[in-house]
Specification:
Shape: elongated
Bound molecules: pyridoxal-5'-phosphate
Strand content: 25-35%
Largest sheet: 9 strands, mixed
Radius of gyration: 23 Å
Number of helices: 11
Structural class: alpha/beta
Distance between the termini: 18 Å
Number of strands: 20
Oligomer: single chain
């Protein structure tokens, strides 16, 4: 199905990625992190596939994302990893959504609404984002017990800030040991889930806790460009677009806004029907490349809102309507979101989350 700009998501690859990742973590339980519309892949479709793969809990960023899953029929546990206004305690409760306790202050305000919410308690071991301060294990102990009296506590967790960077492993070890210290204090409470690993943590460090929060690797991308994933884990997403026009450009002419590209010699230029409003980042101007008819073709000129130009001087048989691969692979080359992120000065995560709503998601291997 050829459109203007579209994404194909292979659900079978998602299933394989989960299975392959589970080998690393000795088949420990996984909470699938499907915030930001499953990192741009479409949360409800991905969740449905993951339920078939045996996943029993999901993590999202906010209440709207949680409700979207509930409304699409997901019955499994859903944890909101971030902030929900405490005035929505009743909505959380009625929809059986687990809320993260961000701080003691948050717990107290939530309690005032009088619902015995399901919660998980965040512990801050060095990220300085959310959570009870692990530098004060006794205070954490008291706080967790107070929270436990008023809520149904289904988990305690922390988040690692540099698990994707091997040369900073000492910092991760420090975070893990602070977390273990807090957990030791509250062992008697028999809190069901204790977790600290993201994708990178589960790969790089011996298991701590009984659950891994799996995000980026689920989608087949790397937590960091320098991490090697096994060949069996593959990107689930391919992003395609089409050539809308091909033309000859003479030496000395310029391409696009700001005339940032000047032709040094006569060349063949093609226009692609995707732009920064689709999430094809403007930072790829004069730096990115696409795959076309088995070749690589460099981006020339500035990315426009809905279109951009490529140099196809050395690509054979380029015609209007040809399919272009923005993310994905052909017989010889591959461009992943990690590669594109590196070119644009960001990370693969931002590339896939940034593919905008106007790009339709098409699912392969749905059964
Ligand atoms: C996003 C997120 C994750 C997943 O991280 P990945 O690097 O994508 O595996 C895990 N835990 C928390 C709290 C998160 O916010």
């Amino acid at each position: 199905m050829v459109q203007r700009s579209w994404v194909e998501i292979d659900l079978e690859i998602i299933a394989t990625n989960v299975f392959e990742y589970q080998k690393y973590i000795d088949f420990c339980d996984i909470m699938a992190i499907i915030k930001a519309d499953a990192y741009g892949h479409g949360a409800s479709r991905i969740a449905k596939k993951l339920v078939q793969c045996g996943i029993k809990s999901f993590g999202v960023s906010n209440l709207e994302e949680a409700l979207e899953l509930r409304n699409s029929g997901i019955k499994e546990s859903i944890l909101v990893l971030g902030y929900t206004p405490v005035s929505l305690a009743g909505v959380l409760y009625e929809n059986d959504i687990v809320q993260t306790v961000l701080s003691l202050e948050y717990a107290e305000e939530l309690k005032a609404h009088g619902f015995r919410n399901k919660v998980q308690i965040a512990i801050d071991t060095g990220m300085n984002r959310i959570g009870l301060d692990a530098n004060e294990p006794e205070l954490c102990d008291l706080a967790i017990r107070m929270i436990e009296k008023n809520f149904e506590v289904t988990g305690v967790f922390t988040h690692l800030s540099v698990a994707d960077t091997p040369k900073e492993s000492a910092y991760t070890e420090m975070q893990l040991s602070k977390f273990k210290e807090v957990i030791k204090h509250v062992e008697d409470l028999k809190i069901p889930y204790v977790h600290c690993m993201n994708s990178a943590g589960g790969i790089g460090f011996p298991m701590v806790g009984n659950l891994v929060r799996l995000g980026i690797v689920l989608y087949g991308l790397k937590p960091d460009i320098n991490i090697k994933l096994p060949e069996t884990i593959k990107p689930a997403m391919t992003w395609k677009s089409v050539i809308t026009m091909v033309k000859d450009v003479k030496a000395g002419e310029s391409i696009g806004y700001g005339r940032s590209y000047k032709a040094n010699e006569d060349m063949k230029v093609a226009t692609v029907s995707t732009g920064y409003a689709d999430g094809y980042m403007r930072n790829l101007s004069n730096k990115g490349y696409v795959l076309l008819n088995g070749r690589k073709a460099p981006v020339i000129g500035k990315i426009c809102m809905d279109q951009f130009m490529i140099d196809v001087t050395h690509v054979n048989d380029v015609k209007m309507g040809n399919e272009v691969i923005l993310l994905g692979k052909n017989a010889e080359y591959e461009i992943t979101a990690d590669d594109m992120g590196a070119i644009a000065g960001t990370i693969g995560y931002e590339v896939i989350c940034g593919i905008s709503k106007r790009v339709p998601r098409i699912y392969l291997n749905c059964e």
